[in-house]
Amino acid sequence: MQSYKPKNLKKRKKILIIGGIGFIGHNLAIFLKKKNFLVYVLDSLSVNNLKNVNEKLPAERKLYKSILDSRIKLLKNNKIKMIIQDARNNKKIFQHINKINPDTVIHLAAVSHANKSNKDPHQTFDNSLRTLENTLDAIKDKKKHIIYLSSSMVYGNFDGREVKENEVCNPLGIYGNLKLAGEMIVKSYNQVFNIPYTIIRPSALYGERCVSRRVSQIFVENALRDKKIVINGDGEEKLDFTYILDLINGIYLCCIKSNAKNQIFNLTFGNAKKINDLIKLIKKNFKNIKVEYQKRDKLTPVRGTLSIKKAKRYLNYKPKYSIMNGYVRYINWYKYHFKNH
Ligand SMILES: NC(=O)c1ccc[n+]([C@@H]2O[C@H](COP(=O)([O-])OP(=O)(O)OC[C@H]3O[C@@H](n4cnc5c(N)ncnc54)[C@H](O)[C@@H]3O)[C@@H](O)[C@H]2O)c1
């Protein structure tokens, strides 16, 4: 008689994403769910999200509310469990992590914008580092894998080099320094409690349903509203613009590859482009757009390309979206959403 072999004997891996209803978080949650992970997202919705959308100007408020609502709708449609909780609450984080018992925790909660961080260091510390320490504390006895989203801002000025992960870090301002502090805290928990970690350094992300108002987003929004585009500096500076799908594919690889443990990875497109190159793509889509150049802010480091050789070697990471296809895809999505919101 033929023996019965049930399919899918392998246990589904559980992932908890803290700050999981943000720009990266909700896109990542949906991607991981499609890869058959059991995904939980935890978010306070209070930072750069639905609970503070009223602080925006009326026109932005309506647009951003519709974008943020569409994140929730997508998470619901994909049957992803949402926990609305402030991660600054140590006791509650402990309880949720104990109950879910995730295999990997991905920590995204933060004030995720350099200008906002410089304006409000207290909030940044609280929502970025307090939350991180709570997460680490809750997983320290179970030795769960933590993936921490750091930033290319930890490097400071690139000085024309293609920066590798072992570069000496010299950040400028509150955001970059606190991101580096977060990396050190993660490593210290590894030293003391043997918690496996992966630190990821992304850069200049853009993509669907972002409301963070970084250059790549503001350019499209201004073009859609017929407003001029203002550039800090002469536009010849380069940034390693990265489309969201490339980053989340890289984070997925960090969830499944054992050699991602106790490593730092740059996860970007790996080929910086001039801000003026982005403007060229905008001009192809919006013929009459006006551009103005202003004196650049001295707290913005001069950046460029992040080397992704290590991610290629360890993770087989292969980013697919240059600005030529990723940014154009994003412009088309935004045009449609703007018309229909
Ligand atoms: N987007 C980028 O270009 C970029 C680049 C480098 C690094 N990062 C890092 O990646 C992470 C995610 O970035 P993002 O673009 O998705 O930002 P985001 O602002 O869209 O998302 C952050 C989420 O964290 C949540 N959050 C903040 N404080 C919280 C708290 N106390 N409790 C629970 N939830 C809380 C917010 O409500 C928000 O939904 C951040 O740590 C950011 O610094 C982002």
The H-and-E topology, N to C, reads as: EHEHEHEHHEHEEHEEEHEEHEHH
CATH class: Alpha Beta
Question: Which structural class do you get from the secondary structure elements?
Answer: alpha/beta
| Shape, per Cα inertia axes | globular
Task: Trace the largest sheet across and list its strands.
Answer: 3-2-1-4-5-6-11
- Report, as a whole number of angstroms, the end-to-end distance: 60 Å
What does this structure look like?
The chain has helices spanning 23-34, 58-77, 90-100, 114-119, 121-139, 173-193, 215-224, 244-256, 275-285, 309-315, 323-340, and strands at residues 14-18, 38-43, 81-84, 104-107, 145-149, 197-201, 205-206, 229-232, 238-239, 242-243, 263-266, 273-274, 291-294. The protein is of the alpha/beta class. The chain has one domain (14-340): Rossmann fold, CATH 3.40.50.720. Helix 1 links the parallel strand 1 and strand 2 (38-43). The protein is globular and about 60 Å long. The mean pLDDT is 95. Bound molecules: nicotinamide-adenine-dinucleotide.
